[in-house]
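for the record, two folds in this file. i put them one after another cuz i was lazy. first one right below, seq on top, structure tokens after. the second one comes after a little note so u can tell where it starts
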Amino acid sequence: MKLLYLIALICLFPQSEENPLSSDNAGPRRSFEDIKREIAGYSEVAKKIIELAVHGKAQNRSYERLAFFVDAFGPRVSGSRNLELAIQYMHKVLKEDGLENVHLEPAKIPHWERGEESAMMMEPRNHSIALLGLGGSIGTPPEGITAEVLVVTSFDDLHKKAQEAHGKIIVYNQQFVSYGETVQYRVQGAVEAAKVGAKASLIKSITPFSIHSPHAGIQEYQSDVPKIPTACISVEDAEMMSRMSSRGTKIVVTLKMGAKTYPDADSFNTVAEIVGSTYPEQVVLVSGHLDSWDVGQGAMDDGGGAFISWEALSLIKDLGLRPKRTLRLLLWTGEEQGGIGAEQYYKMHKENISNFDMVMESDEGTFMPTGLAFTGSDKARDIMKEIMKLLKPINVTDVFENGEGADINYWIHDGIPAASLRDDLTRYFWFHHSQGDTMTVQDPIQMNLCAALWTVVSYVIADMDEKIPV
């Protein structure tokens, strides 16, 4: 889940007042009462999907497929051999699953490697600091950087202490408010530190809970600001240095980072379909991303989302269903670097943008589902509320605001209705981008429920007589 990129994309691509897709839905439409009756008619199909996913032969299938996948390929950072082997594997198994039009579409994605890295407190005592270099960071000289630490609590605090910052290593001990608000320190921390002459920056991990495990993620340099090495450190180490500093204790740290950025790597978005029976050119897209950071297993972010999206097509195929529109699975590449693979896919297909009926992305975990987040017109939202009533057998019927995702926001900008899975995020940021993101976080029962929701919604939208209104 990359809320920062969602905000950035919305700012970069404001919605136009006149929707370019409005003509595609022109002409008389049925009454809402007719649409409600049509949706209610899917009740038995929805029950069959739920039964198969939650209690039947497909029970725990998405979990078991994911467990094999992450155990076999491990973390899959952009540009890595692990990611490309994982993509080739998915290409193979999607064909074996009997899905249609299985193919790979090329994309160029960033290739950054952290190399060996360490941080050692030299004063007031020797202490090994847990850290993870941030994506795209430069490395240090081979001998490292040894400098005194300046602890700050915010960007405002840093600017107030600008006279003290020159030549030091900035440690950010910011308060966690929410991921969307607090992640600015990870993304912009190095730039703000460099502006006041710092040698490096260490950012307290963006998480509300920690067991001494740092959290990785992307950061961004600015072309007009010197680049300095930057890494995340554990909550515990940041808070310890903050306490030391508040007592007037001098802190000296030696930071060594072997990080390097290489030329962009060749990669692929992975595609599979169930071709529509009546309107094959029209598409309902379900998606998640295959890449992850280079720590943990990427089981939660975003293995779960990718595999319930695969499961949606599998369940529909197993039941012998073929919707009127094409149901297309997209497993994105390079999402963690800002939706790089999705952006390239969008540019390749945007000339056919009016054929997209709905875009769906699951990238906020597959914990206990609570409903569906949706972005679209009021008329479309009313229809989604009726569709979600079909999930009453599993007590998941709510429709929330802001159905967005880093990979689908390109379509949202063009007025395509969009949805994302909403689930219990209580523990999501405990494990996000850390060594803790493994299969141990996943729960098969919860994944079954997420798959059932994802399948019912995507199938009904793809099979209704008319497209979702924009």
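(here's the note) second protein begins now
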Amino acid sequence: MTLCNSFLLKTPIFPPHSHYFPPQFPTKPIFSLSCSANPSSSSDDNATNGGGEPKTKKKLSDQSSWEAEDSSGEDYLYRLGKEADNMNIAVGARAGVVDDLFVGQFLGRDSDIVFDYRQKVTRSFQYLQGDYYIAPLFMDKVVCHMTKNYLAPILNTKVPLILGIWGGKGQGKSFQTELIFQAMGVEPVIMSAGELESERAGEPGKLIRERYRTASQVVQNQGKMSCLMINDIDAGLGRFGNTQMTVNNQIVVGTLMNLCDNPTRVSIGQEWRDSDITNRVPVIVTGNDFSKIYAPLIRDGRMEKFYWQPNREDIINIVNRMYEKDGISRDEVVSIVDTFPNQALDFYGALRSRTYDRSILKWVDDIGGVESLGNQLLKRRKDDNLPVYTAPKQTVEALLESGYSLLKEQQLVMESKLSKEYMKNMDD
């Protein structure tokens, strides 16, 4: 008798072991089978061969791992299904939605055991086009931390898992780190502070462990360096004033501390196995004020701290590389930086952006004014191109004018303090 050429699965998937099925099918069969058999064979041939001995179950392939059993006698599919977070097979490949070549017949029509692993959560940096300046001190710190963690098994010293980069607002902490990742060929998993809170208790902590394991899989499966990066961690975990400490805050802190203490054993809810060893991957976090974070998390054994405050030379080099394509000389950049001292790096980026305002308003008038702006931007045909926009020519005078405008806005925010007009009883 030959194997069935197709079947329709009506219940959740079980591995192809006979002990999972009852000895007799119920009156209404669970499975609808369409089989082709040799007409000369009888039902007794299913259980015995010609000599009366039980027939050996035919394997799918000598090279197949689907039926390979572990030490507990469970096969690969059973173990993988037991560890899955979502047992609803309907979220997988659906017949008629995904090509049948990928849906297949063996596992059924509504299943995809590797669904979770096909989600792209790592970050690539194709959008970073152009020539940027990386501060040598910043690069040395990140490269050293990454290298130490990958060499941790052979180093005879304690290596902190987390690198905490902190400093003033808008100093390019995240951007400089991404530039270094691009230069090193690192494919990181990046999280934000907004993912550290949830309406469900335990979800953010579990998400951190999943993202950490994803970064580990990048190392193991793709052969690329990876890491877990959390931006603005103090915004999600910091204690400001009388803000409430939530269960998720405590679980996230405990999860990060546990990762530092056990970087190669990371559970996402499945049973522990001796063979489940996670590759150690470094963790990098950024923030503005680490004094607001739970102190045991930032202690020296767990987190190596790096205070980033670019000096004048760093600012001039970064801004010069930013304005270089506009034809602004280095001497002109120096004069702009000296005109607006004690400003963060994002000020000089916003300064250049504001010089586009006047030309953008002229472009809006050229395409028909504000009344037709929505139609031009959103409702045009696919083969229609937007009217040509010509970028303004950058001059030192235009940049200085934009800089004074930004400086005036900063002073108004600090001097007006309109919130006091609405809350008269607020203390100074």
